[in-house]
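User: Fold both of these, please.

Assistant: Here is the first one.
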Amino acid sequence: MFLLRKKASKLQQEVEEVKVVMIENMNKSEERSEKLTDLEERSDNLRNSGKMFVKTSQKVKDEKKKQNVRSKYILYAIVGSLALIIIIVLVISLTYNKTTSVQNTSTSSPP
């Protein structure tokens, strides 16, 4: 009988040890689960931030393209206007020189 009690006591002690280990494992598993949940939330936030960054950077890129095109058109208009002004000035000066040259030749030739 004593031997049975001793075996039962030993088995009870082993069961308690296994119980402690199981409780520790369950606690660790719960902690891992919480950490994984936190990690998932952080990765979702990071993914959303990345999507927002892509949208914002695309908007900025499009706006900069529009500004670049506008600047080019303004530059082309300025260069074109300057070229037109230079051509007009040249035409007027050549016409004026021909007119004065014709007048000088007509006044200087004897009748």
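And the second sequence with its predicted structure:
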Amino acid sequence: MIILLISIMITLVIVTFAVQNAAAVTVQFFLWTTNVPLVLIIIGSFFLGALIMFLLSITKDLRNKIQHNPIKIKESKNPADTRQNTPVQEERNNHKPDQAGPNQDGQIDKDKNDSEQNKNKS
């Protein structure tokens, strides 16, 4: 009921505005000239401005969503994909200093490997 009363009051204000501004005005735009009631010019300008602001806010919201929620790229299972580590790179990444494993050249350090085996025998 309250919404209906508010709607009726807003409608009365708009109708009063339209009646008081019903005078025809001449509008010129480059070579185009026409006579239009003043109320249509005012209301049309209001809605055009609202539409422009709405479109600008949508683009700003979309830009913010894109910046805060980047699309995550799924890992490719393609063997030719260069983003995946090779077995040697995986071994280097997982290599702990006290374990035998490939050195910088990709060769297994035999001295460390021998010392590890001697420790395991003791």
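The first strand starts at residue 24 and ends at 29.
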